Amino acid sequence: MVQLTGKNIVITGASGGIGAEIAKLCAARGANLVLLARSMDKLEQLQNSLQERYQVKVDVFQLDVSDTNQVQKVFKQIDETINEVDILVNNAGFGVFREAHEATIEEIKGMFNVNVVGLMVCTSMVLPKMRERRFGHIINIASQAGKIATPKSSVYSATKHAVLGFTNSLRMELADFNVYVTSVNPGPIATNFFTIADEKGTYVKNVQRFMLKPEYVAQKVVNAMITPTREINLPRWMNMGSIIYILMPRLFERLGKRAFNKK
Ligand code: NJP
């Protein structure tokens, strides 16, 4: 594992779920943190507990990543506060499980603005300096939904396919600049994500026993920091599924029909 002591790590969507778990593990390894989300109260709570427990520097800023002007302002402030971002974790995101004909325009735009445009704009804020310094790591939290599209997640899945496309291009663009780019593609994780995504609770009920723990996912992410890890795919059996899907999509969709309709 690479030393994270003194590294400056920016995490979007750090007020809960995987983002907050990543923050805790980074602080435990001596990194300085910049935590971003809309819920300032939760960020401040986390800030206090991490500073007290690990004696690291933690800055917090309120940020809705879908607000481009706000992203520009906040990253300017980050620049003034810590000067150099070593690692950016693009984690902020949400999903709504609905069939395409039921999805509202607001939901479609909302998911794309947060999961895709927000992630791209935050990335663009750190790219010039990372390229200039020839150092850095961008970690994008995508999803297995970015590899396997399933019913009731047409919009969410499309956003995560977009994140993967962006991430793969970016990795190649930065290959000669010593800047690492990693995508994280987990299956279902036991977080508040499902409060919005699965309003009827059907999916949670069906997949509860497969759910990953956010601490486990966070550990995998933090272990990969400042290493040239291409992708983190979890759990392993779901990753195998996505490989078979690429090879035999028609057969996979036919055989997987029942499993895919768990939402
Ligand atoms: O979800 P949750 P996760 N601007 O709801 C923030 C992906 N993923 O940790 O703004 C800025 O506990 C929100 O903060 P707040 C998923 O797509 C998940 O599971 O204060 N921040 C909170 O901190 C997402 O990309 C599963 O409300 C915004 C955080 O995002 C990432 O994992 C499976 C925001 C969400 O925390 C973290 O999700 C998978 C905005 N506009 C991928 N909107 C899963 N849980 O099963 C939200 O494959 N946030």
Description:
The chain has a single domain (8-260), classed as Rossmann fold. The protein is built from 11 helices and 7 strands. It has a 7-stranded parallel beta sheet with strand order 3-2-1-4-5-6-7, sandwiched between helices. It has helices at 17-28, 40-54, 68-82, 105-133, 154-174, 193-197, 202-207, 214-223, 236-247, 249-255, 257-260; strands at residues 8-12, 32-37, 58-62, 87-90, 136-141, 179-186, 231-234. The chain is globular and about 50 Å long. By secondary structure, it is of the alpha/beta class. Helices cover 52% and strands 14% of the residues. α1 packs parallel to α2. Residues 12-19, 37-39, 63-66, 91-95, 114, 141, 143-145, 186, 188-189, 191-193 line the site of 5-hydroxy-NICOTINAMIDE-ADENINE-DINUCLEOTIDE PHOSPHATE.
Q: Within the CATH hierarchy, at the fold level, what is the topology?
A: Rossmann fold
The end-to-end distance, rounded to whole angstroms, is 38 Å
Shape: globular
Give average pLDDT, whole number: 96
The number of E-state strands comes to 7
User: How many separate domains?
Assistant: 1
Strand order of the largest sheet: 3-2-1-4-5-6-7
Which architecture does the CATH hierarchy give at level 2?
3-Layer(aba) Sandwich
What is the H/E string?
EHEHEHEHEHEHHHEHHH
Low-confidence runs: none
Radius of gyration: 18 Å
Ligands, deduplicated:
5-hydroxy-NICOTINAMIDE-ADENINE-DINUCLEOTIDE PHOSPHATE
- Briefly note the structural class of the backbone: alpha/beta
Can you identify the CATH class? Answer: Alpha Beta
